[in-house]
Amino acid sequence: MADPLRRRPAAIKAVPVRHPGRWVAAVVVVAIVAEIVYTFATAPNLKWNVVGRFLFQRLIQQGIVVTLELTVLAMLIGIALGVIIAVMRLSPNPVVASASWFYIWFFRGTPVLVQIFLWFNLATVLPYIGLGIPFTAIHWQASTNSLIPAFIAATLGLGLNEAAYMAEIVRAGIISVEHGQTEAAQALGMTRLLVMRRIVLPQAMRVIIPPTGNETISMLKTTSLAFVASVPELFTRSQQIASANFYVIELAIVASIWYLLMTSILTVGQFYLERYFARGSQRALPPTPLQRFRRLLFSFHAPPPMPVDVPLSLPSEHR
Amino acid sequence: MSGTPMVKAEEVHKSFGRLEVLRGIDLEVDPGEVMCMIGPSGSGKSTFLRCINHLEKIDCGRLSVDGELVGYRERGDKLYELPDPEVCKKRSEIGMVFQRFNLFPHMTALQNVIEAPIRVKKENQGAAVARARSLLERVGLADKIDAYPNQLSGGQQQRVAIARALAMQPKLMLFDEPTSALDPELVGDVLDVMRGLANDGMTMVVVTHEMGFAREVGDTLVFMDGGVIVETGKPRDVLANPQHERTRAFLSKVL
Predict the structure, then answer these.
(1) Which terminus of chain B has fewer Cβ atoms in its 10 Å neighbourhood, N or C?
(2) How far does CA A199 lie from the centroid of its chain?
(3) Nearest to B119 among A192, A198, A202 (CB)
(4) pLDDT at residue A311 above 90?
(5) Per residue in A58-110, pLDDT tens?
(6) Would you call B220 helix, strand, or coil by DSSP?
C-alpha cells in the first residue's frame, strides 16, 4: 500500500526528442503550395477580378439556393427510402427481400448521371403517365412533362439513386447491433417491426450517422449533375454565365469556391454530429478542431498524443 | 394446483445443421416448481431453454407450455404453424433472463422495464411506470431508476433485466446462466432476487452453475450431457449421491 501522506515525486523534466523530419516536411509543403498559388495568381489569362465580380452575383446566389434545395430533397428521399429498403432487405419474406435486392442492384448499377437523364427525357417515350384501376372507368393521366419538370427529374434521379446507397448503409448499421438485443426484445413479446423500430434502429444510428454525413457532402457536389437536365443550380448557372462571356475557368472557380464553402460547413456539422453520437461509447470524446489546433501549436516538438483509450489500470499480475 | 404442467417436453429433438444438440428431452415442470439445469457447456441446456419460448424451433417431439404447444396449434391430427403475432403473444407470457443481460443500452433502467408493458401489452404509461418503480425497488435498485445500463455494474444490470422480465407479469421465468457473466462478489445480489421470486411461488427454469443455489432453492435438479437428460432428482440427492458415472465426473470437477 502506498502511503497517502508521501509526496508525489516531481514531474519528469527531460530534453525532448528532436523531430527534424517535421521541419523538412514543412519547408517542402510550403514551397509547393506557394508555387501553385503564385502560378495561378499571376496567370496572365486568368481574370481574378471576374471571379470577384461574379462571386456574389444574383444568378449565382439563386443557383446556390437551388443546389441546397436539391441536396436536402434528394437526401430526404434517399434516407427515408433507404431505411425502408434496408428493412425490406432483411425481411423474412422472400418476395420483399428480393424486391429490395433488385432495387439496389438496379439503382447502384447504373450511373446517376444516366438516371437523371432518363427521368428528364422520360416524356420522349412515355408522353403520358396514368394511374387507373383495370377493367373500370376509373382512370387518371397527365402529361409526363408537366408531371416531371426538370427539377423533379433531377430530384428523383439523385434521390432514388441515393436510396440504394443509404439502404446499404442502414443495413450495415442494423447488422452491427448485437443479436442479443433482438432476442431480448423478442423474448418480451415484441413483433419484428416493433423490435426494429424501438430497439434496433435507434442503436444502429451510431453506425449510420457518419457515412450519412459523408453521403450528404457527396450529394451537395453531385447535384451539379442536374446540369444535364438544365436545372438552374449553382454549376448550371455558372456555366450559363460563362457561355455568354467566355470566362469558363473563372466561373468554374466561382462555383468551386461556393461548393468548398458549403462542404466545409457540412464537414464541421458532421464532426459535431459524430461527436454527439459517440457519447457513451468512448472514454474520451475526440478533440474539437479548435482544441486540436491549439494542441498542435504547443506540441510541434512533442511526441504524438497518447491514444485516448489506453487502459486506466494495468492488468492484474499473473500468479 | 391443477394437473397441467407448466412445461412439458416429450422426445424433443433439435439440430443445428448436422449437429444434433437435443437428442430426446423428456421433462415436466409443475406450476410453482423451480427446476435447475446443470451440465457441461454444449450439453444443450441453453438451447432447450430457448426452445421453450420459441427462440429456437424444435425439429421433432412435442413441447408445450401451460398445456399449449409451443409455436403450433393442433387441430384434429394436424399441426398448424402459429403466425408471428401469436408467437409474440405467447412469448410475452414467459419471462427470460440472459447470461449477458441484453438490456437496451439506449434506454434508462425505467425505460427498459416499461417498454414492453406499454408497447406490447398496451398498458397506460402511469400504471406501467408505477409497477416498474415497485419492481426496481424490489430488486434493490430504487435509486438507479434513471441510470443507463452502461452506468450500472453487471449485477445491477442483471437485476434490471429481471425486473424487465417481471414487468410483463409472466407465468414462467427462464434464466439462462444469469450469474455466469458476473464478478463473484456481485453474484449474491442476483441470486437473492431469484430466491425471493422462488419463495413467491414463481415457476422457474434456471440453467446455472451455482450448485449452492440449486441445492437450496431448486425443487428439481436436471443434469444434461450430450443433448440428453442423464439424471433428474431432488437437488440434495443428485448432488450428494449421483447415480451415474457421468454426473459424478462432472460434479467432482465443479464442486
Answers:
(1) C
(2) 25
(3) A198
(4) no
(5) 999 999 999 999 999 999 999 999 999 999 999 989 999 999 999 999 999 99
(6) strand
**DSSP assignment of chain A, as one string?**
---TTSPPPPPP--PPPP-HHHHHHHHHHHHHHHHHHHHHHT-TT--HHHHHHHHT-HHHHHHHHHHHHHHHHHHHHHHHHHHHHHHHHT-S-HHHHHHHHHHHHHHHHS-HHHHHHHHHTHHHH-SEEEEE-TTSS-EEEEEHHHHS-HHHHHHHHHHHHHHHHHHHHHHHHHHHS-HHHHHHHHHTT--HHHIIIIIIHHHHHHHHHHHHHHHHHHHHHHGGGGGGGT--SHHHHHHHHHHHH--HHHHHHHHHHHHHHHHHHHHHHHHHHHHHHTTTTSSSPPPPHHHHHHHHHHTSSSPPPPPTT--SSPPPPP-
Contact status of A180 with chain B (Cβ, < 8 Å): yes
Identity of the residue in B88, B105, B120 whose CB atom sits nearest the CB atom of A203: B105
Contact A188 B103 (CB under 8 A): no
Best of B54, B111, B115 to disrupt the A interface (most A CBs within 10 Å) is B115
Mutate to test the interface with A, among B90, B104, B108 (most CBs of A within 10 A): B104
Mapped onto helix, strand or coil, the DSSP state of residue B139 is coil
pTM of the entire predicted model: 0.80
Tell me, what's the pLDDT at A312? Answer: 42
Q: Determine contact: B164 vs chain A, CB below 8 A.
A: yes
Question: Which whole number is the average pLDDT over A141-146?
Answer: 77
Q: What is the largest CA-CA distance in chain A?
A: 95
Q: How far apart are CA A142 and CA A127, in angstroms?
A: 9
Q: What is the pLDDT of residue B147?
A: 94
Using alpha carbons, list the distances in angstroms from residue B68 to A313, B23, B29, B74.
53, 22, 14, 9
Q: Do B119 and A192 touch (CB under 8 A)?
A: no
Question: Is A184 in Cβ contact with B120 (below 8 Å)?
Answer: no
Q: Is B48 helix (H, G, I), strand (E, B) or coil?
A: helix
The 10s digit of each residue's pLDDT in A207-229 is 998 899 999 999 999 999 999 99
| B156, amino acid identity | Q
Per CB-CB distance under 8 Å, the chain A contacts of B168 are 188-189
Counting one residue from A and one from B, how many pairs have CB atoms under 8 Å apart?
63
Chain B residues with beta carbon closer than 8 angstroms to that of A180 = 98, 100, 102
Q: What is the pLDDT of residues B99-119, one digit of tens each?
A: 999 999 999 999 999 999 999
Distance in angstroms (rounded) separating the CA atoms of residues B193 and B188: 9
Cell reading at A51: 471571379
Residue from the list B91, B100, B161 with its beta carbon closest to the beta carbon of A186: B91
Burial-class residue B114 by CB neighbours within 10 Å (0-12, 13-18, 19+): buried
The answer to whether B102 contacts A180, with C-beta atoms less than 8 Å apart, is: yes
User: What does the alpha-carbon distance between residue A150 and residue A156 come to, in Å, rounded to a whole number?
Assistant: 10
Q: Which residues contact A257 (CB under 8 A, 6 or more apart)?
A: A51, A55
Is residue A189 less than 8 Å (CB to CB) from chain B?
Answer: yes
